[in-house]
Specification:
CATH topology: Maltoporin, Chain A
Number of helices: 6
Helix content: under 10%
Distance between the termini: 39 Å
Number of domains: 1
Number of strands: 45
Shape: globular
CATH class: Mainly Beta
CATH architecture: Beta Barrel
Structural class: mainly beta
CATH superfamily: TonB-dependent receptor, beta-barrel domain
Strand content: over 45%
Largest sheet: 22 strands, antiparallel, barrel
């Protein structure tokens, strides 16, 4: 990016900060950082409690924390603030890694209810509207005793905001950035007597971009290069709307109904003369979620919750141009072909009790039914799971607290399984010590069992993946030790953990010989020809490896040296490996060392104007890709300023101005089939935002 655009932005930010320092202080707000011990959380032990009292370690990102960094989406929020989380975007969605384990081991929830919608394990994160987030809670480690299958690596729970303090509230939050990035979040909240209505709308768009317009033409990163349209980041256009109604007909009873719809269309480069890459179609995603439930408070010591979820996700191809096969027209512009449909029904009943002072006991039952329908391979399958669980938290003595839990699951295809957990918390004179054990369990996904997938243009090259009906469920044992100290000025926390996964399911790559060529042509007679093998060198099949081991350390430090100034540093070391046939190799997409740092200054004058200045950085080591070229590490620094102006008692304006990737760190390597990436930035850019609140 041309420096002519950066210098005025820097000058404006420095000027705002300097002029603010000349004003007499009358009011100051302290930035809380990610270790807010008084914050109420729900994810760790399944009930509301203060973070400092949770026997299970949980990281919390509040809406205020996220806003101060200037980020506009869920992926950016976690990546900038948590070093043990990594993302890799693709045409299929985003690959998430938490504490060394990937998408399928991480349970993503919105208000405690599961989010589905993945393509080849890539999650469509545009289903998550950051504009409605109250806080994000991240539970590190296995949590199957409370949440069942998929929670081997951890849980990310997005808690949305449903304010009830004012009869009317209208907000609009607009952000713009490089490459046509535009985010608009709007909300309308109405509270009248015993009825509340919450309406949310979000629009996101981004243009595709690449940092290098060339690709190597052979199997190795050497020799001839040719122009390519292959993108580093694929653009999209996304619209999301959500409506939630709450009813409080009489004391103790609350009911809700909620529906959301999400529509996303990619922005792929079209085929052009002289380019081997390019596409005839866009990928189209649709998501519909319907939720209903209620809570009845029998007394302050006994509460009953019932929640139902229906989540329908589908994607396919919407054609941009006419396509032919063997001289016959197969698709016209505007045609749509569905590739995959996922459906989840989930009914959860939970009873929370306080039988005596200092204790919480939970009993629950859950029914889930997952459905999959894929055009490729003509697969129509479903799998149900029935569960019962219980958990007891209690104060044992003095500053010692304990939690014990047990869950029973019956899976239609894999039978019965029991997962226990046990946790201890000891608090003394500002110190906290936690010890955690939890067993994890994961049934193979329907795609891993039955997948029969071919794509001629995935990340610029063909891709073939087969499921495996003989897969066994994965089981894990997680242990963690945490020590922390906190006072008025500083908080520090260090966690050491190990997660041992047996029968880990991995996607094994196989070289293509003459026999494999014949097999693949028989499996995909309409898609694969001899010409395909000029760019298709391997195919994939899901298998059970012997085991996987993840060991790591997460550490965080927050310091408040001055009123209004907060400094934070967080470090994550992860050693994630899998063993197959006696050989240990790094887990795909794992990262050994990552550091995030931030400095935040916030100050209010005359109760009318608040300045917030935030600078944050992420330094990440190389990303491991066994069988491919590893992605190099990078360092990224960002600056954001926000200015909150209270115009009158009803209207508040909050303009923001920032610089992303201050030092212009980019990955400009020439594209190659086996080349992998971790830095997905196009370079330095100025970002602008404007939030308007009327209440």
């Amino acid at each position: 990016m041309n420096n002519i655009y950066i210098l005025p932005a820097l000058a404006l930010m420095i000027s705002a900060t300097a002029s603010a320092s000349d004003v007499t202080v009358s009011d100051t707000t302290v930035f809380g950082g990610i270790h807010q011990l008084e914050q109420v959380v729900v994810t760790g032990n399944g009930h509301h409690e203060k973070l400092k009292n949770s026997t299970t370690p949980v990281s919390v990102l509040t809406a205020s924390d996220i806003s101060k960094t200037g980020v506009t989406d869920f992926q950016q929020a976690l990546q900038r603030l948590l070093p043990n989380v990594q993302f890799a975007p693709s045409s299929m969605g985003s690959f998430i890694r938490l504490n060394g384990l990937g998408n399928k081991y991480i349970l993503i929830l919105v208000n405690g209810q599961k989010v589905i919608g993945d393509i080849s394990t890539q999650v469509d994160l545009n289903q998550i509207n950051l504009g409605s987030v109250k806080r994000i809670e991240v539970l590190n480690g296995a949590a199957s005793a409370l949440y069942g299958s998929d929670a081997i690596g951890g849980v990310i729970n997005i808690i949305t905001d449903q304010p009830k303090d004012k009869p009317l509230r209208i907000t609009s939050d607009l952000h713009t950035g490089a490459n046509g990035q535009l985010t608009e979040n709007a909300s309308l909240d109405i509270n009248y007597k015993w009825i509340s209505s919450y309406t949310r709308f979000s629009h996101n768009e981004l243009s595709s971009f690449r940092n290098n317009g060339y690709a190597y033409s052979g199997k190795a990163p050497e020799g001839n290069v040719q122009p390519t349209l292959q993108t580093l980041v694929l653009g999209y256009n996304n619209n999301y709307i959500d409506q939630r109604l709450e009813f409080h007909p009489f004391r103790g009873l609350s009911l809700y109904g909620e529906g959301s719809y999400n529509y996303k269309l990619t922005d792929r480069p079209r085929k052009q003369p002289g380019f081997a890459s390019g596409y005839d179609y866009e990928m189209r995603f649709k998501t519909m979620r319907w939720m209903a439930g209620g809570q009845y408070i029998f007394s302050k010591n006994h509460i009953l919750d019932i929640d139902f979820l229906s989540h329908n996700f589908r994607y396919g191809n919407e054609y941009m141009s006419t396509t032919t096969s063997k001289g016959i027209v197969t698709h016209e512009p505007g045609d749509y072909t569905q590739s995959k449909k996922q459906l989840l029904y989930d009914l959860n009943v939970k009873n929370t009790n306080h039988f005596y002072s200092g204790s919480t006991t939970i009993f629950g039952a859950e029914y889930k039914n997952n459905f999959i329908n894929t055009t490729t391979g003509n697969i129509v399958r479903h799998q149900y799971n029935i569960s019962a669980y219980g958990q007891h938290d209690t104060k044992i003595a003095g500053g010692l607290y304990g939690t014990a839990g047990l869950r029973y699951d019956y899976n239609e295809d894999f039978g019965s399984h029991v997962t226990p957990k046990a946790s201890l918390l000891y608090k003394v004179s500002g110190w906290t010590f936690r010890a955690n054990y939890a067993m994890g369990f994961r049934s193979p996904g329907l795609d891993e069992l039955y997948y029969h997938y071919f794509s001629d243009k995935t990340s610029g090259h063909p891709l073939v993946t087969f499921g495996n009906k003989d897969l066994r469920p994965e089981k894990s044992n997680y242990v963690g030790i945490t020590a922390g100290y906190s006072n008025k000025y500083v908080s520090v926390e260090v966690t050491g953990f190990a997660n041992y996964v047996n029968d880990m399911i991995v996607k094994q790559a196989y070289d293509i010989d003459d026999d494999a060529k014949e097999m693949l042509k028989n499996q995909f007679p309409d898609e694969i020809t001899d010409a395909t093998f000029s760019t298709l060198f391997t195919y994939n099949r899901y298998i059970n490896s012997d085991k996987g081991i993840v060991r790591g350390v997460n550490a965080g430090l927050n310091v408040n040296p001055l009123n209004g100034l907060t400094l934070s540093a967080n470090y994550s070391y992860i050693n994630a490996r899998t063993q197959s046939a006696g050989e240990w190799i790094p887990l795909e997409r794992s990262v050994h060392n990552t550091v995030t740092v931030a400095a935040n200054y916030i100050h209010t004058w005359w109760n009318k104007y608040t300045l917030n200045v935030n600078i944050n950085g992420r330094m990440q080591g190389k990303t491991y890709y066994p069988g491919y070229e590893n992605a190099p590490g990078y360092g990224m620094w960002n600056l954001n300023t926000s200015h909150t102006i209270i115009v009158n008692g009803r209207l508040t304006l909050e303009p923001s101005l920032g610089i992303d990737n201050i030092f212009n760190q980019t990955d400009n390597r020439i594209y190659w089939t086996n080349r992998r990436y971790a830095n997905f930035s196009s370079g330095t850019s100025v970002v602008f935002g404007l939030k308007v609140i009327f209440d």
